[in-house]
Amino acid sequence: MNILKELEFIDRIDGNFPYGDRKECIKLMDEAVLISPNASFAVIEEICRIPDEDRALLPFLALLDLLKEIEKRFEHPLKELIVKIASRMIKEQESSLEETLLNLESLKKYPRQFACLNIIFYSCHGDETKLNAGWDEIIKLWDKGN
C-alpha cells in the first residue's frame, strides 16, 4: 500500500466529494478500491458524514444508493459493520454509547483504518469523555505498531 497515495486521495475528496455527479462518484470509488481499504472507507465517510449544505440538496435515498455502490466494490472484515453504521448515519439515526464503544473496540485489530474510526466515533454524540478515551486507546495501540 502506498500511504502517500492514500493520503493524497483522502485529502482530495475531503469536503470535495461530488455527491450530485454519480459518474464522478463511481470513478472515485473505483480509484479508492485500487488504493486501499482505508481509502474505500474514506469514500463511505464522505457519504455518511455529508455536510449539511449538501445534505439539503440530496435525498437520503441517493446517499444510500452511493453507499450500496461502494459496498459492492471491495471486501474487508469491517465492511459490514461500517456500512450498517453509515446507513444509519445517512438516516440520521444515532448509535448508542455502549454500541459505539463496542464498535471502537472491534477496530483494534485493524490498524490504520482511520476512516472507520471516524465513522464509528461520529455515529454517537454520547459521553465525550468515554468516546475520547476509546479514540485515544485505539490511536495509541495503532501507533505502537509503527
Order of helices and strands: HHHHHHHHH
| Class from secondary-structure proportions | mainly alpha
The amount of helix comes to: 55-70%
Number of strands: 0
The backbone outline, from C-alpha atoms, is globular
Compute the number of helices: 9
**Separation of the first and last Cα atoms:** 14 Å
Rounded Rg: 15 Å
Which segments are poorly predicted (pLDDT under 50) over 5 or more consecutive residues? none
Task: Describe what you observe in this structure.
- The chain is mostly helical and 146 residues long.
- The chain is built from nine helices and no strands.
- Helix 2 (22-35) packs antiparallel against helix 3, helix 5 (60-71) runs antiparallel to helix 6 (79-90) and helix 7 packs parallel to helix 9.
- The longest helix is centred in the C-terminal third of the chain and has 17 residues, at 128-144.
- The two termini are 14 Å apart.
Topology, please?
Elements: H1 3-13, H2 22-35, H3 37-48, H4 52-55, H5 60-71, H6 79-90, H7 97-106, H8 114-121, H9 128-144
Which properties best describe this structure?
single chain, 146 residues, mainly alpha
Write a brief caption for the model.
With 146 residues, the protein is an all-alpha fold. Helices cover 68% and strands 0% of the residues. The chain has 9 helices and no strands.
